Amino acid sequence: MQLTYPALLQQGIFINNNWQTGAATFPVYNPANGEVITNVYNAGVAETEQAIQAADAAFPAWSNKPAKERSDILKKWYQLIIQHSNDLALLLTTEQGKPLTEAKGEVQYGASFIEWFAEECRRTYGQVIPAPVADRRFFTIKQPIGVVAAITPWNFPIAMITRKIAPALAAGCTVVLKPAEDTPLCALALAQLAKEAGLPAGVLNVITTLQAAETGKLLTTHPAVHKISFTGSTEVGRILMQQSSSTLKKLSLELGGNAPAIVFNDADLQQAVKGTLASKYRNAGQTCVCANRVLVQKDIYPAFMKAYQEAVMAMQVGNGTTDGVTIGPLINQDAIDKIQKLLKDAFDKGAELLCGGKVHSAGPLFFEPTIITHCTPEMELSREEIFGPVSAVYVFETVEEAIALANNTEYGLAAYFFSKDVQQVWRIAEQLQYGIIGINEGIISFAEVPFGGIKQSGYGKEGSFYGIEDYLITKYLCLGGIH
């Protein structure tokens, strides 16, 4: 990995705009070849406490800084990310594995949240409320909630960070960020650029650690932390919610998903194949909004499956830095083991293999793009996130059956469907129990729109003007003695 700007490759933790290193480290691996990229600081509870104290100390000055000044710093940060986008994309592909084309897209996507909230921070408006009595005036104002702890996953190591900390910083909050241990390097690179953009000391602090349980417990129970923003599994989300209850922290939880992609008989075939493919196989199927279940109506099933199989089998597997590669490695051996376990259960219960189905010759963490058919709700992959390049296909006959199948899950993050019937589009969109609906489209997330789920997929919104609200409190002011 040859970066044109070597300062982006950091190994320490970032507290008070200083890089701290020490003897306690852990390796960061390239999942494509198993090589160690570098070793980073393995911070513990003591360092996490330092980060919280730094954020707490920086909060008064940062929160009182005019929104225009915060906006200018965020804009400079955005510009630096764009300036170094090629290096950031290479760093992302090297530690996470996704194809370089996707990594470049993620850098742009991640930067867009900083650009968006750099403007949105100047629009955190209050209200004047008509009073029922003549001698008083009522107002509301918006103020930052305080120190925010952001815990982010490995599958989008830039976008998941900027989607959280951009609105937090824009609102006037300070942040302690704990990135995933599999992909800490992008977080450290972003911190370096934030420092160069002029972000004051203590406003953003980054802790890299293998001690997730211990540091997570401190973040959720510390009285100086007022909000937790977490993206990850529903299981861990429940733990963080329980731990946060002692201090009644505000939480934003973006948790597991079990997205259906429904192809109706009247769908545009090419559009349905393209949209399902984009949703299912982006990042080798390792996204929370991936199409986990592909539901195809009976009449269109033969034509759809023929075209879909051709498209899937045409995908190129390999190292993400190689031109033409569309499927990179999975993040680690646990991910491979999970896919194999889910497939075995499905085959034991009657599923049939259409293509793929095994580890790819490119290496131990690569898995062939796979399609299995004759899937049923009794299979484990109908209930659990596959998180890999495997399409599980189900057949249905009626619209009512499709809705019932789609909603038959505890999750409610994203859903997709393909239909040209405008009346049906409205009815189905209203009946699907999900926070995000893609209609004739497989790529649905942008900085301008709200992202978040319902049911066991969590709560809170990221992106859009809703996104900054999760980092603000509404204060009511009553002015009396008006004559």
Written account of the structure:
The chain has 483 residues and is of the alpha/beta class. The protein folds into two domains: 6-255 and 457-477, 3-Layer(aba) Sandwich (Aldehyde Dehydrogenase, Chain A, domain 1); 259-439, Aldehyde Dehydrogenase, Chain A, domain 2 (3-Layer(aba) Sandwich). The protein has helices at 45-64, 67-83, 85-96, 100-120, 159-171, 185-196, 212-221, 234-244, 269-281, 301-313, 333-348, 399-407, 422-431, 464-469; strands at residues 13-15, 18-20, 25-29, 36-41, 127-129, 137-144, 147-151, 174-178, 204-206, 225-231, 250-254, 259-263, 291-297, 352-355, 370-373, 390-396, 411-412, 414-418, 436-439, 454-455, 458-459, 472-479. The strands form six sheets. Strands 14-15-16-13-12-18-19 form a seven-stranded mixed β-sheet, with helices on both faces. The protein is globular, with a radius of gyration of 23 Å. The model has no long low-confidence stretch (mean pLDDT 97).
